Inverse folding.
């Protein structure tokens, strides 16, 4: 094992209160040449202010079209350990729950066959195994499979769905986020592992409007738990909050977006005009002991989210205001399959679902999915008069 | 033949009995301190969570130490959060302090719960990606070191979500963060004609450009870029490695502010441009760090209790935001892309 | 040689001495009734205004009668408003009632001041334009007859601005009105190839189409329209008379609501689509009339004092608007033009 | 004179409380054949639900490129009086003020040379003389000129500017709307009368944020009066309002968009945090005797408004937050001329100023006009990262 690379610039990132990624790479460098080279190449990037990774050639694992991101150094002479340094995406358990014995197995495999560096987790949600050789890819996959770990998505396929912790440790999950994400992931293994669409498709599931997995911002299909009936008010706990000095007017009443909460300081009682509540969740967030969501639960389905490339970032928008979410989750599956079929048929290369809807219009999307138009889909109706009529709608 | 398509490990196999028993039966939670939560189930059982930010880029040996701690204090169970924090799930309250001490000893401080800055979302940067305009991990480390007090102490008006993406692809939910750092290019890519001819599908490259800045150059079997129309998105480079867009002299970071994804009080919002450009200054990006600190300090001082970053700006107005931060407003801040017009101020009402 | 370019008559030559004396020195005004205002100047002088709606399409003999009245009661001075009402400007309070009596006698009722419906803005229609999908004056007459009580009595929560445009060109400020009627076509125009070849510039016609539905058909020296892409804006017809877009079976009116131009309280807003289509039903357009009446009645009943139409809807939400009006929500209501995406509901918050 | 046309459908619009336009046409029909034919053709349109007007050939008046809208019946055999039935646009006096003797002259000319039908006024603001023959156009123009009435705009030119009544009869005019509209109209006679631009350009001027001439919605350049200093509060009058039963909380305090008004019910005093006032004008509207605008007056200049064709309706947007408006109004003229020059150079045929700005970006507009970028121009800064850098701004 040669000496550790000299990294005067990176070394300045060793100290400070926040845990250091440089320390992590150095841990690896002590036993792994690729990690040592990574230190060196990164130091070079710091000196030159430029990346030293090249576009990936296509690499992969038998039977899978995705799950591996090929990566090659553009200065392999200087850093031979990085000649090939591919990433593998491993599908995380729903909610990112781990039992140490199961995880240790995965770590051992990665010690043996890769750099030992990881991301826990990637931004999509996968376990990222950071850096191995082309000829180790299959071995890693095989070893992982043996221990019950399967690959995640990449390329123009379904990406690894993810979900907030939900019923696993949160009182606000209106839907079983973990069971849904697990069920859909298993159901769509083919879509996940074999790219076949115009572009990527992401599913994210949050148990309530707090959207703990940022689904609206970064999933083509965002599933957000909600309720249909009334917020449950525990009068005693309201009094306790107030007596404890809680600023119920400032933090709850005044912040309600529809001003549908009223509070009587004399009787110390709070009442909600549920008819006008939009379920933003603020009042519940602020008084978790006193207020609970309703009991008729389900999800709002939003479609179209993605990052800025090409047409600006979109946040998903409502296409189904309320969907019951009971196993086996047939309704959401039906919808997804209709969407994929329509997108697959009409989408241009690298056109996300939301962009296709933008191009062809919600009209076309609604027709393909059979969903009815409802006012909940829009912030307001159109302001321009340029709307279309179907042949069947007009007098011939 | 190895099996395929069997899916991830079942989450229930990764959960403690207590969690399984109370699955979907949590009643309420309390924030014990900025690193600790307790969730109380309908049946009265309690689950304690100790959370710590991580650098996300973690070596397996560190993960093994986490496993050791989980074995020691949590019957072997822990989880990660959607922001790459680690959460130890304890059943025994008396284990909280010893666990925290062990974490501190290994350089990890619990924090990020409640009205704090939680872990900073980020991406690959120079560690592993081929398109970044800035590094990821290095800037995150420098920024988090600087704002660490906001991570451990609950002195913000509301939670504040920091994130970073190293290019306009914006991996992560950067476009809806309270404060976001984004890597940008500022000069059009260079077309390496010979390589283009060899490596790239011309029609795909032409089609890739959102502003129609690229046209074919059949003579050279290559393409030409109209520099006037190029806004440096790098999408052509994604399609064709022979059109590199890097420029160490001009690449750098932009800062966006005021986004959120929760619908609490105000619906989710996109982040908006605050600072168009700060040059790359490795290893510690002092200007980025100073600017982020300033942006947070101003908010911490001026916002009302319960107001997220964007809600604060909505109240005071963007006119005032630029005044109180002292940031210059430039032509860059005015949208000129597809959905620009609705962002223009079609009213004579504003603050001086 | 006749003189040109000398400009309009000087406004000061059209003003009474009292108005000139107090020009820019008005102190305050009071609404005396729905047809009468008084403006008080710094020096205490008073100017009384009696306002009446007009059909705007006026014969010179009627204008002469107005002149007679102005001579009789106003020293020969009067004005029109930006909404085509006539305003008699009186100096002597005791002339108000006699003037009103004379107006009534000729079929004009004072009104439109304060929280009323003022005169209904409109356009040419079948009286003089070559592109209308509906008539203008006839619908206005039928609608104003129906809602006349709201013109003479102050029983609305705020002022309500009605308008009508007979085609998508929307002459007038129809796109920012509380309630607006707009003429629409519903089928693509027909291309009369031979006439196109003779009368029209093909490139201009092709360029005129905002949705790129038109392509040249060189063989015929004409153009072809892709019916799927056409949204019947009529712009090609404006450029080329050989592409008529009229269809009596399908033309009709759409109704938009909730716009305003003042910045009071809420900045100016565009009107939004409420009813996509009502067929032409001359001479009295009963369905349009009934719908407008309903739209106003519902607002009058449900809105809070001081709330304009759009402010009322903003408060209750569009979900509720469609509920309380009983109007169906359709795919037409969902924008699919250039700025559509920002109008989509990217939040899980809404009312059932 | 033949009999009046039979108009059973139109006759149904003779009664009812609102004054009848049919009655007006009938007045004309009694002495003018064209009016009688208009009745007939309109009745035909009512029967067939279609217009019977054709596209205009170009007709006009010597020395003028605009001011006349050519109009021809498509059924001239049936309605010979409408074979040619052109409209003339006559520039109204600022604020639509009339002295009867001056107006009577115009009416007499139109009796002699036209149909006798008018619009008082057109939507842009002109006096509309509705219907005459091609060979009368020059005569009408000459006779009008003799009495001091000039033509308005039409075609790709400056359209007749218009303004609210302003200082003529309103206490809220922050700027001299009438003098401004009069001055600009006289200054730009050439632009008004000789079409030479890519498309039409409209100027509208309102004395305050109430925007009584709907300038923001329908002018390429919208000039709105405002003030820079503090709202003037008359304490005695505040008390009078309250004592008179006025709902000061509901109508003023609660409706202030920035919540910068506070009212003390004990002292019956109202105070305004002017620093946060956005000058929406509501409080002043509601209490005209108690509140008055500030004393440092000027205008906000907004650009870009127009109707939906082609790219959706735009409302004008702020380009100069505050401009002093003192005669001879050089600053606004300078700006207008710079805008016209840039638009003329860059605009496509039938591209309104706002659409050109949309296509080329505010950046390009600001450069052409020399205006500085200020936050008042936008509701919020851009959300996408796709911004441009000039060659001079980057490192070469
Ligand atoms: C690894 C990861 C970043 C990270 O450090 O966590 C990542 C890395 C890359 N992303 Fe991403 N994206 C990652 C999550 C995201 C997310 C967030 C999410 O999924 O929640 C987004 C925003 C949401 C979205 O999908 O829009 C995201 C939006 C993009 C885009 C822009 C897509 C768009 O519509 O705007 C691209 C560009 C592309 O697809 O060509 C992209 C492309 C890429 C590529 C493949 C670069 C490329 O052009 O080929 C990067 C490979 C880096 C490498 O060498 O490892 N990545 N990317 C994330 C995946 C890890 C995982 O599987 O868990
Ligand atoms: C663990 C985690 C879910 C998971 O599946 O991993 C989680 C857990 C909780 N969130 Fe969250 N949220 C988590 C990511 C998020 C996100 C997503 C993100 O940050 O990318 C959001 C949206 C943020 C945004 O709007 O940009 C989010 C918005 C909220 C909110 C709404 C905050 C607001 O007022 O806007 C609440 C309610 C509150 O705190 O009042 C909440 C509340 C909670 C509660 C109290 C829920 C509960 O009863 O258990 C949990 C502890 C909160 C705390 O830290 O104080 N959580 N939460 C995530 C922790 C990430 C981390 O490491 O910090
Ligand atoms: C005469 C006229 C100006 C002119 O130059 O001709 C005028 C005159 C007055 N307007 Fe107006 N406005 C006139 C068109 C407008 C318009 C334009 C329009 O309707 O197309 C608007 C914008 C309407 C909109 O937002 O859609 C307009 C929005 C206002 C407002 C703000 C209303 C609001 O709360 O949104 C006020 C203030 C108020 O009434 O509280 C106002 C107030 C006034 C006052 C009280 C101003 C004053 O002190 O003299 C005048 C009498 C108002 C009344 O009728 O009760 N005026 N005013 C216009 C009369 C048109 C008509 O025939 O009815
Ligand atoms: C007469 C008048 C309507 C009325 O009954 O009052 C009118 C009538 C016509 N307008 Fe207009 N416009 C009239 C005010 C407006 C306004 C309102 C305004 O100026 O305040 C608008 C909206 C504001 C704007 O300019 O955008 C308006 C927006 C249009 C448009 C659409 C422009 C756009 O950018 O969307 C067209 C289409 C075009 O220019 O080809 C148009 C075109 C026309 C034409 C010339 C039809 C055509 O396609 O050639 C109409 C001639 C009718 C006729 O035979 O007399 N007219 N037009 C108004 C002019 C009277 C006057 O001079 O006082
Ligand atoms: S999104 Fe809602 S249900 Fe999910 S973890 Fe956050 S608060 Fe709990
Ligand atoms: S959930 Fe939101 S909208 Fe509903 S009552 Fe609570 S604060 Fe108001
Ligand atoms: S944001 Fe860009 S540079 Fe960073 S990981 Fe994603 S694709 Fe790569
Ligand atoms: S960087 Fe983007 S805008 Fe520039 S040429 Fe490439 S694809 Fe087009
Ligand atoms: S709205 Fe259309 S049809 Fe009516 S006058 Fe204007 S251009 Fe003519
Ligand atoms: S009517 Fe409009 S959309 Fe249809 S072809 Fe003509 S210009 Fe195009
Ligand atoms: S816009 Fe303002 S200044 Fe002009 S008339 Fe209306 S209220 Fe008066
Ligand atoms: S003018 Fe408008 S913003 Fe200013 S104090 Fe009055 S109500 Fe408030």
């Amino acid at each position: 094992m040669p000496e550790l690379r000299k990294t005067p610039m990176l070394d300045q990132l060793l100290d400070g209160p926040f845990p250091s990624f440089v320390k992590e790479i150095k841990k690896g460098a002590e036993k792994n040449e690729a990690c040592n080279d990574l230190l060196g190449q990164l130091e070079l990037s710091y000196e030159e202010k430029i990346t030293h990774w090249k576009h990936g050639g296509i690499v992969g694992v038998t039977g899978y079209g995705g799950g591996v991101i090929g990566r090659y150094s553009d200065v392999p002479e200087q850093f031979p350990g990085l000649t090939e340094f591919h990433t593998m995406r491993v599908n995380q358990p729903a909610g990112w729950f781990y039992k140490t014995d199961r995880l240790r197995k995965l770590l051992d495999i990665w010690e043996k066959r890769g750099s030992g560096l990881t991301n826990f987790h990637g931004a999509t949600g996968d376990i990222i195994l950071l850096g191995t050789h082309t000829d180790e890819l299959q071995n890693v996959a095989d070893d992982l499979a043996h221990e019950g770990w399967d690959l995640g998505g990449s390329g123009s396929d379904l990406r690894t769905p993810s979900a907030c912790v939900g019923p696993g440790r949160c009182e606000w999950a209106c839907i079983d986020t973990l069971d849904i994400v697990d069920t859909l992931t298993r159901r769509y293994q083919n879509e996940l592992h074999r790219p076949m669409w115009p572009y990527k498709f992401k599913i994210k599931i949050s148990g309530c409007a707090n959207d703990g997995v940022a689904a609206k911002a970064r999933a083509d299909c965002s599933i957000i738990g909600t309720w249909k009936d009334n917020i449950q008010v525990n009068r005693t706990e309201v009094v306790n909050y107030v007596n404890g000095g809680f600023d119920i007017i400032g933090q709850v009443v005044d912040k309600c977006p529809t001003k549908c909460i009223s509070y009587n300081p004399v009787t110390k009682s709070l009442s909600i005009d549920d008819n006008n509540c939009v379920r933003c969740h603020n009042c519940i967030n602020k008084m978790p002991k006193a207020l609970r969501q309703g009991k008729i639960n389900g999800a709002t389905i939003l479609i179209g989210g993605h990052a800025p490339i090409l047409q600006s970032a979109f946040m998903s928008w409502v296409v189904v205001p309320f969907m019951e979410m009971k196993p086996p989750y047939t309704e959401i599956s039906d919808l997804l399959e209709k969407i994929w079929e329509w997108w697959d048929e009409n989408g241009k290369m690298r056109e996300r679902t939301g962009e296709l809807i933008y191009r062809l219009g919600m009209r076309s999307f609604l027709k393909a999915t059979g969903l009815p138009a409802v006012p909940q889909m829009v912030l307001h109706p159109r302001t321009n008069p340029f709307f279309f009529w179907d042949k069947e709608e007009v007098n011939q | 033949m190895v099996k395929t398509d069997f899916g991830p490990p079942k989450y229930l196999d990764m959960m403690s009995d207590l969690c399984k028993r109370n699955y979907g039966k949590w009643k309420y939670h309390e924030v014990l301190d900025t690193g600790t939560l307790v969730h109380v189930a309908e049946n009265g059982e309690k689950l304690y969570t100790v959370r710590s930010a991580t650098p996300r880029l973690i070596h397996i040996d560190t993960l093994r130490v986490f496993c050791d701690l989980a074995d020691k204090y949590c019957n072997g169970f822990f989880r990660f959060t959607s922001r790459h924090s680690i959460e130890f799930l304890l059943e025994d309250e008396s284990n909280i302090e010893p666990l925290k001490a062990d974490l501190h000893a290994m350089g990890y401080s619990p924090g990020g719960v409640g009205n704090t800055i939680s872990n900073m979302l980020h991406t690959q940067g120079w560690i592993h990606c081929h398109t970044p305009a800035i590094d990821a991990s290095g800037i995150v480390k420098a920024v988090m070191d600087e704002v660490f007090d906001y991570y451990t102490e609950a002195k913000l008006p509301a939670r504040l979500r920091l994130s970073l993406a190293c290019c306009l692809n914006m991996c992560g939910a950067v476009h809806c963060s309270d404060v976001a750092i984004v890597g940008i290019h500022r000069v059009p890519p260079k077309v390496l004609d010979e390589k283009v001819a060899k490596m790239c599908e011309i029609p795909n490259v032409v089609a890739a450009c959102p502003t129609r800045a690229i046209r074919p150059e059949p003579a050279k079997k290559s393409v030409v870029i109209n520099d006037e129309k190029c806004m440096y998105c790098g999408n052509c480079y994604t399609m064709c490695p022979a059109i590199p867009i890097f420029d160490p002299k001009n690449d750098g970071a932009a800062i966006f502010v005021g986004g959120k994804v929760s619908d609490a009080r105000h619906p989710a919002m996109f982040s908006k441009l605050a600072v168009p450009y700060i040059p790359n200054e490795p290893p510690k990006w002092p200007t980025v760090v100073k600017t982020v600190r300033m942006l947070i300090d101003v908010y911490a001082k001026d916002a009302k209790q319960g107001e997220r970053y964007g809600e604060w700006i909505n109240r005071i107005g963007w006119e005032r935001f630029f005044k109180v931060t002292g940031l210059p407003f430039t032509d860059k801040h005015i949208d000129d892309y597809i959905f620009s017009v609705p962002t223009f101020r079609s009213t004579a009402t504003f603050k001086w």
